[in-house]
Amino acid sequence: MSMENTTSNFIRNIVAEDLQTGKHNEIITRFPPEPNGYLHVGHAKSIVLNFGLADEFKGKTNLRFDDTNPVKEDTEYVESIKEDVKWLGFDWDNLYFASDYFDEMYDRAVLLIKKGKAYVCDLTAEQIKEYRGTLTVPGTQSPYSERSVEENLDLFERMKKGEFKDGEKVLRAKIDMASSNINMRDPIIYRIAHATHHNTGDKWCIYPMYDFAHPLEDAIEGITHSICTLEFEAHRPLYDWFVRECEMAYIPRQIEFARLNMTNTVMSKRKLKLLVDEAIVDGWDDPRMPTIAGLRRRGYTPEAIRNFCREIGVAKGDSTVDSQMLDFFLREDLQPKAVLAMAVLKPLKLVITNYPEDQTEMVEVENNANNEEAGTRLVPFSRELYIEQEDFMEEPVKKYFRLFPGNEVRLKGAYFVKCTDVVKDENGNVTEVHCTYDPETKSGSGFTGRKVKATIHWVDAQTASPAEFRLFEPLILDDAPENEGKHFLEQINPHSLEVLDGYIENAAFKDAMPLDKFQLVRNGFFTVDSKYTTSEKLVFNRIVSLKSSFKL
Ligand code: ATP
Ligand code: MG
């Protein structure tokens, strides 16, 4: 199922053809995030595509921060983005910032003015929108569009010098207010923002707009294939216009593909930031977040994310992927790697009344049910154990084969035990289950005398360590929240986090580090939480349950 690099798609075909025909000798792609938040799994799709193409065709990929909006951007985001790209397994050939090109962009804007292709406009944002028209109504010429070149040069320079307040003036491209493509109706190319920029500080108080900046950035870097998401398709004529009219030496090509949408997920930095700011999650790396940092802390692996991105492929049409598909690749990746251990998440004391009080024996348990080479380990077994509450029923329902008074089950890797009686508290809740064990039935002894219908896991009460287990459900309830017209904050799942105090066998984790992966028998795949684990307290995140009904 895993397919490194070989998945065919229309963009790959374009690249292959461009190399074959000699249009390019080498391809250069770029991943251009705006540092206004942490990366999410949607970005992973773009990363895998851009870096994957360069890897496959021996080209280059630039990591370029599209930092043209100082108000929303921050170096914290720059650092997290670098870390996430590396963690996903990719390395950039060059690291650039759009802000590195502010001088050149300014010069190109001046060039447009000199050519009579740009003008300073004093309309308010509101008016500009009104004048722009709609899909069916053509736009109206701005009263400022006939300003002379000299006046525009003077005003633009004074905008740069800080003589005007935010919103007082903008620089607009002069294209075609009657164009059927609204993007071509004299788009804004520079706006005033008296804000400190994370890179250029207070040097600038005018900033280029995305539609103007992006094609220039691509041209400056010699990007051969500028891959972006589908919503920019209608911006492509503008992209080409800026490259041409700004007289860029290199002509890059924009290619659009469908963005990744996933069920039960919001996929936008702006929305994810809201979840952080509203403290609905404990940070950008909350294990319920679809951010790369969140997935990492949750225990997802770069391999699983890469394989998922390759499998969903690259298409021209938008679609929504079932989030369980990612889990499929996750299980596939974790299965051979995770260390097997026993843990009890909702403990119930089990006492083996005929087992000697001062005795402990070691029973042998496999380390990885799917990998014999992982060997076995010895786990302590004694008179008092913990089992899962749900593995005992005082009055069993039909077809319940686990423990109930009079019934016998196997304790995994150890013996048959038979329930004799229970201890209850004053409210009638069972606090202890009493059993007897049969020494003849030890696992591996070849005992064939009789059979039991269930095997349950357990931990030794004396030696097990207390641990916290954090179980997750989707943070967003609806399957396609963004299409329902509801604000996504109304669709937060109030039960997305369950925190349990249980026990885990000692042997398995004594050397465990944050982010180590475990398969806890019957309970799922878990990782050691990197935020809450301390030397006093072990905290595990459930990465994913063991099975799913999802079929690829
Ligand atoms: P967001 O709304 O989350 O901020 P964005 O598209 O504005 O997303 P950028 O930081 O500008 O985010 O994006 C960097 C790159 O990642 C762009 O090339 C963009 O097309 C791509 N990208 C962003 N979201 C997705 C997605 N859901 N699927 C595929 N590619 C995406
Ligand atoms: Mg954005």
How would you describe this structure to a colleague?
There is one protein chain. Helix content is 25%, strand content 24%. The chain has helices spanning 10-20, 41-56, 75-87, 102-114, 125-132, 149-161, 210-221, 236-245, 269-277, 292-298, 302-312, 323-334, 506-509, and strands at residues 28-31, 60-65, 94-97, 118-121, 170-173, 188-192, 206-208, 225-229, 253-257, 260-262, 319-321, 339-341, 343-344, 347-352, 360-366, 376-382, 384-388, 408-411, 416-424, 430-438, 455-456, 459-460, 465-472, 497-504, 517-520, 524-528, 538-544. Helix 2 (41-56) packs across helix 11 (302-312). It contains 13 helices and 27 strands. With 552 residues, the protein is of the alpha/beta class. The strands form seven sheets. It has a seven-stranded mixed β-sheet with strand order 12-25-26-27-23-24-13. The protein has a seven-stranded mixed β-sheet with strand order 21-18-19-20-14-17-22, with no helix packed on it. A four-stranded antiparallel β-sheet has the order 4-5-6-7. It has a domain at 106-207: Glutamyl-tRNA Synthetase, Domain 3 (Glutamyl-tRNA Synthetase, domain 3). Helix 2 links the parallel strand 1 and strand 2 (60-65). Bound molecules: adenosine-5'-triphosphate and magnesium ion. Adenosine-5'-triphosphate (ATP) binds next to helix 2, strand 8 and helix 9.
Give the helix/strand layout:
Blueprint: H1 10-20, E1 28-31, H2 41-56, E2 60-65, H3 75-87, E3 94-97, H4 102-114, E4 118-121, H5 125-132, H6 149-161, E5 170-173, E6 188-192, E7 206-208, H7 210-221, E8 225-229, H8 236-245, E9 253-257, E10 260-262, H9 269-277, H10 292-298, H11 302-312, E11 319-321, H12 323-334, E12 339-341, E13 343-344, E14 347-352, E15 360-366, E16 376-382, E17 384-388, E18 408-411, E19 416-424, E20 430-438, E21 455-456, E22 459-460, E23 465-472, E24 497-504, H13 506-509, E25 517-520, E26 524-528, E27 538-544
Parallel strand pairs: 1-2, 2-3, 8-9, 10-11, 12-25, 14-20, 18-21, 23-27
Antiparallel strand pairs: 4-5, 5-6, 6-7, 13-24, 14-17, 15-16, 17-22, 18-19, 19-20, 23-24, 25-26, 26-27
The chain binds adenosine-5'-triphosphate (ATP) and magnesium ion (MG).
